[in-house]
């Protein structure tokens, strides 16, 4: 079998905090995440705000040090890499940050921002780096003549293109995209997504695409993993997840996505979640989702099981995994399932 480009096994990232009373607590931001990304493919990682998606991406890059688990890049454990090995790893794995305003140093020109990775890794001399930067700006759809402008002179979409150009500078094999379009207008989102797809086809780059918008993830992903309170609750290829979502949480997320057909949108039954997500400092016993799950809350027998026994990711199809005691017991209609895949 071919070694995956990136394989994450039981990754955990816990943060130690103190309560207002001075009590020591642990925030379980990422609590046992496993995922695999092959070369030239895209894995979409979705979930509500605060579920641990961004922390997962940052921990894979070792911007946060993992509490436990394995991060295998081409078979090598990133968690055990020494500084020199880690620098070489980051040459092949880059990061696109969520906020195109905060991620660019306002004191640097575009040429300095995009050329900084080349300078850090001592690639070429000054003149060749300037030439490379202009090529990168042209690749992402920006005017190479703007190399001496500053970040504040660009729009949000243009700034994100600068961030993409910077991530491309070292010709990486994997880019972790941390909600790269969430701060942009819808029309600009489409442009950036199309750009990322074109770059993947041109350079064979793999993506870990982090987002909370399932329609965006559907557009770009080969495989989708759904995350809730630090854990992966469902994983499948994009078509299997959108046509036959098995986890009640996934079905709730899909029911919130507006459909382009007004007739179907008018007739559909929204699945509304009660309350807020539990605190990662004190997650509920059993299934983390049972306190909000429409299936568990409507059946006392199911609630008794879900509130005591923790489910694990188990196969529910050839390429489909789900962490639910009653997977597929709460199906969405065939009409809605068909419309979920019609967008792509």
Description:
By secondary structure, the chain is α/β, with parallel strands linked by helices. 35% of the residues lie in helices and 21% in strands. The chain contains 13 helices and 12 strands. It has helices at residues 53-60, 83-92, 110-120, 126-139, 156-168, 186-203, 214-220, 238-243, 248-255, 262-267, 294-297, 300-306, 334-340; strands spanning 6-18, 24-37, 42-46, 68-73, 76-77, 93-96, 174-178, 206-211, 223-228, 231-237, 314-315, 321-322. The strands form 2 sheets. The protein has an 8-stranded mixed sheet with strand order 6-7-8-3-9-10-12-11, sandwiched between helices. Strands 2-1-4-5 form a 4-stranded antiparallel sheet. The chain is globular, with a radius of gyration of 21 Å. The chain starts with 5 loop residues before the first strand and ends with a helix.
| SS elements, strand count | 12
Spatial shape: globular
Mean pLDDT: 88
Give the uncertain stretches in residue-range form.
none
What is this structure, in a nutshell?
The protein is built from 13 helices and 12 strands. It is an alpha/beta fold.
Task: Summarize the topology.
Blueprint: E1 6-18, E2 24-37, E3 42-46, H1 53-60, E4 68-73, E5 76-77, H2 83-92, E6 93-96, H3 110-120, H4 126-139, H5 156-168, E7 174-178, H6 186-203, E8 206-211, H7 214-220, E9 223-228, E10 231-237, H8 238-243, H9 248-255, H10 262-267, H11 294-297, H12 300-306, E11 314-315, E12 321-322, H13 334-340
Tags for this model:
about 350 residues, alpha/beta, 8-stranded mixed beta sheet, 4-stranded antiparallel beta sheet, globular
């Amino acid at each position: 079998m071919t070694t995956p480009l990136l394989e994450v096994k039981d990754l955990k990232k816990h943060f130690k905090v103190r309560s207002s009373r001075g009590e020591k607590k642990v925030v379980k931001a990422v609590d046992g995440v496993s995922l695999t990304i092959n070369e030239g493919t895209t894995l979409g990682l979705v979930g509500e705000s605060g579920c641990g998606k961004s922390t997962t991406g940052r921990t894979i890059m070792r911007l946060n040090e993992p509490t436990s688990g394995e991060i295998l890049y081409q078979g090598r454990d990133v968690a055990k890499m020494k500084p020199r090995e880690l620098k070489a790893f980051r040459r092949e794995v880059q990061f696109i940050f969520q906020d195109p305003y905060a991620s660019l140093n306002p004191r640097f020109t575009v040429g300095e921002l995009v050329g900084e990775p080349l300078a850090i890794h001592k690639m070429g001399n000054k003149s060749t780096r300037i030439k490379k930067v202009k090529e990168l700006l042209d690749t992402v759809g920006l005017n190479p003549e703007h190399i001496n402008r500053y970040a504040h002179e660009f729009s949000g979409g243009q700034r994100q293109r600068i961030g993409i150009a910077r991530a491309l500078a070292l010709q990486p094999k994997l880019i972790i995209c941390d909600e790269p379009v969430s701060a942009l207008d819808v029309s600009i989102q489409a442009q950036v997504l199309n750009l990322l797809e074109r770059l993947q086809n041109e350079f064979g780059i793999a993506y870990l695409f982090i987002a909370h918008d399932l329609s965006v993830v559907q557009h770009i992903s080969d495989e989708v993993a759904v995350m809730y309170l630090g854990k992966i609750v469902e994983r499948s290829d994009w078509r299997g997840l959108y046509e036959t979502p098995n986890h009640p949480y996934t079905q709730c997320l899909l029911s919130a996505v507006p459909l382009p057909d007004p007739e179907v949108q008018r007739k559909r039954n929204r699945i509304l979640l009660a309350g807020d997500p539990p605190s990662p400092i004190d997650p509920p016993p059993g299934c983390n989702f049972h306190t909000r799950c429409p299936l568990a809350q409507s059946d006392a027998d199911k609630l008794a099981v879900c509130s005591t026994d923790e489910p694990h990711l188990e196969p529910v199809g050839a390429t489909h995994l789900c962490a639910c005691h009653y997977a597929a017991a709460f199906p969405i209609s065939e009409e809605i399932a068909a419309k979920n895949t019609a967008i792509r």
